[in-house]
Specification:
The complex is a heterodimer. By secondary structure, chain A is of the alpha/beta class. Chain A has a single domain (about 1-105), classed as STAS domain (Transcription Regulator spoIIAA), CATH 3.30.750.24. Chain A contains three helices and five strands. Chain A has a five-stranded mixed beta sheet, covered by helices on one side. In chain A, helix 1 (about 25-40) runs parallel beside helix 2 (about 60-70). The radius of gyration of chain A is 12 Å and the shape is globular. The two termini of chain A are about 20 Å apart. By secondary structure, chain B is α+β, with helices and mostly antiparallel strands. Chain B has a single domain (about 1-135), classed as Heat Shock Protein 90 (2-Layer Sandwich), CATH 3.30.565.10. Chain B has helices at about 15-25, 35-55, 105-115; strands at about 1-10, 60-70, 75-80, 120-125, 130-135. In chain B, strands 1-2-3-5-4 form a five-stranded antiparallel beta sheet, covered by helices on one side. In chain B, a hairpin with a 5-residue loop joins strand 4 (about 120-125) and strand 5 (about 130-135). Classes of the chains: A alpha/beta, B alpha+beta. The interface of A and B includes residues 58, 60, 66, 87 and 96 of A.
Chain lengths: ~110, ~140
């Protein structure tokens, strides 16, 4: 799993690309990286996760996204997912996360 | 009849291997990418539960995953050295926030139940278990 912070973000809006598979092995790394970004970016109001190259999502990955939303929301930070592949969207939808998070199809 | 099996140690390091194994073989019986992914997710969730909870991530504990395609049904067997847990006893809906850990919980079991048509669990002599999942592959 690769997590890249795109340079076109500003101090309030970060763009992050996710590449590979988000599972029980990689999900904690994503949480750790996003938490670091939140801590080091005091004026942050939005994180957009670009998921075009996210090829797989397990329940552990979905759980971490929800945990990010729960933990970042009180700080005034909105999390959204864009360019989500149909297979990954299907799993998010089955879990009801598409009703909780802004999620856009690829 | 397609029949194939994979033996693996109880570590999350093996999850990508399990996924690849399932995807490779399911592609022989269906070309629907959503269905292939759903079966892969369900099998991985079953294996991840056994690795993390039943076997406490002890890589020396060996599990065996077997896939059989009979008629138009896919039969998935997981032979687990740990005692069984009852998939049916978990709440019908996943918890967005568990009171004990303040983290989301039950997503994996919820997905297995949503994505699989039949689930049987059997305790074997000596306390080990067999999980038998059936997925109908006809529309």
């Amino acid at each position: 799993m690769q997590i890249e912070v795109l340079p076109n973000g500003d101090s309030q809006h970060l763009h992050v690309t996710l590449k590979g598979e988000l599972d029980a092995l990689t999900a904690p790394k994503l949480y750790e990286r996003l938490s670091q970004l939140v801590q080091s970016t005091p004026n942050l109001t939005q994180i957009t996760l670009h998921c075009k190259e996210l090829t797989y999502l397990s329940s552990a990955g979905a759980g971490i996204l929800l945990m990010c939303m729960d933990n970042f929301s009180p700080k005034g930070i909105t999390l959204s997912l864009v360019e989500v592949q149909p297979e990954v969207y299907n799993i998010l939808d089955l879990l009801g996360l598409t009703k909780l998070l802004p999620v856009n199809h690829a | 009849m397609l029949k194939t099996s994979l033996q693996f140690g109880a570590t999350t390091e093996n999850l990508p291997i399990i996924r690849h194994f399932v995807q490779t073989h399911i592609q022989k019986v269906t070309t629907d990418p959503i269905k292939i992914n759903q079966i892969t997710v369900a099998v991985e969730e079953l294996c991840a539960n056994s690795i993390l909870h039943g076997n406490k991530e002890n890589p020396e504990k060996e599990l065996r995953l077997e896939l059989r395609y009979q008629g138009r049904d896919l039969h998935i067997y997981l032979y687990d050295p740990a005692p069984p847990y009852d998939l049916h006893s978990y709440p019908q809906e996943p918890k967005l926030l568990r009171a004990d850990t303040l983290r989301p919980g039950g997503f994996g079991i919820y997905l297995i139940r949503r994505l699989i048509d039949r689930i049987d669990i059997r305790q074997r002599k000596g306390g080990s278990s067999v999980y038998h999942l059936v997925k109908h592959l006809t529309p």
